[in-house]
Specification:
Low-confidence stretches: 505-512
Largest sheet: 7 strands, mixed
Radius of gyration: 23 Å
Structural class: alpha/beta
CATH superfamily of the largest domain: tm_1862 like domain
Number of helices: 21
Helix content: 25-40%
Number of strands: 15
Number of domains: 2
CATH topology of the largest domain: pyruvate-formate lyase- activating enzyme
Distance between the termini: 63 Å
CATH class of the largest domain: Alpha Beta
Shape: globular
Amino acid sequence: MKPEADLLVISPGNNRVIYQDLAKEYAAVEPPIWAGLLANFARAKGYSAALIDQEGEGIATQEVARRAADLKPRLVALVVYGQQPSASTQNMTAACEVAAAIRERDPSLPLLMLGGHPSALPEQTLAEAPVDFVCQGEGPLTVDALLQMDDLRDDARLDKTPGLWRRANGKPRFTTTCPVIPEKDLPAVLPGLAWDLLPMKNYRAHNWHCFEHIHERQPYASLYTSLGCPFRCSFCCINAPFGVNTIRYWDPRFVIEQLDLLANKYGVRNVKIADEMFVLHERHVLTLCDMIIERGYNFNFWAYARVDTVKDKFLEKLKKAGFNWLCLGIESGSKHVRDGVSKGRFKEEDIRAVVARIKAAGIHIIGNYIFGLPDDDYASMQATLDLALELNCEMANFYSGTAYPGSQLYHLAREKGWRLPAKWHDFSQHAYEQIPLPTEKISAGEVLAWRDKAWQVYFADSAFLKLLRDKFGQDVVDHVRKLTKITLQRKHIAPLRVEPRGRAVSPSTLAP
């Protein structure tokens, strides 16, 4: 039978396992960026491509396998990524289940697995996943080499395929490191996502992203304007597929063409700029903002920034272009703890000043905080919560220190023999069997308990709820109050010796 597609790209995922009850209403449903990039890459090379987004379509594993078998592609690429770098690992369970279902339905289909987690642990992935090949690297050049082959059993040509792991004579074999795509070639090699292959009507923005229009979270899109990150935070695994700490940019003229398409063809307003560090390169940011402003679009963007990269000259342009939210990795209220994970050199005073300037520009902030970093104790975790409450950002993400494959913390955890989650999906911050890292003074179960209780303290805080009511209205307050009634079920939680404390403020007179 002649294949109906040269390449079938599959983005596996099961949000219910990863987010528990938060998946029903509160979590985002995002376009799978790397799956979309890979499918469009193949088409630009002259191959035919199909794409299945399991989470986006809301389909079961067996349905994915049935479609794959019916399509009979020359190569199936299982792309294991997610909404942020750590999500690659938590999607591995779903990816292996999809691979097993395809293998059972049609053993002849050649399966390749790629993504952040497979790049971080390629040999282990090859041993665990029922696939023929694993890619260590970005993926496009490896996929292209495989699609050029008439016979995927040709050992001589397989040995020349860059970034490829496979089994040979019962043992794992690796070829050579795959080079990253040069920055100047990004628009030609990765010419945007295959938007037409994605279920665009199904994607939904994060709840907080739409606090200004809480009932209008669709349509939604996310895209990259750059790849990688030049920083070396020890808890981050963003650069696992790239092998180096660097950043490459698409030309702003190319990015605006993607935004033109999203606005004019798909009617998208809510957009996530998924770059690990968007607010960094002055010319890139300001040029893109000028192009957006010139077109008069009414986008609602959110993007990542760092306390030490936000400059005053950015803020007015960002706001005018529709960047209504910036996400700051504040991480800890203790400079000593931040220094221990190589998180910049900024001080607490810098954090307060930058947050104040961003708010003054009319831009909302998502503050990211981590409890249980290697140097944390109860006092430093309380300092982090105190800082979060003081800053009173319009949104806060509270994480437990977790050793994600591809990060320095993962290597440290393996060296120290620290207990890690037994299943890949339990690396999710919201999973039932999630196990964070212990510190020298606090057990993993205590870290987890602190994180969950600190989250409740923050989101029930009267000053925070007053901020939401004043800025976004009573509907958002009611939405958040409903959210706080959801309790995550945790298997490995432990009693706290010290409870997280909220600030002493007078109760606000919020309407019920």
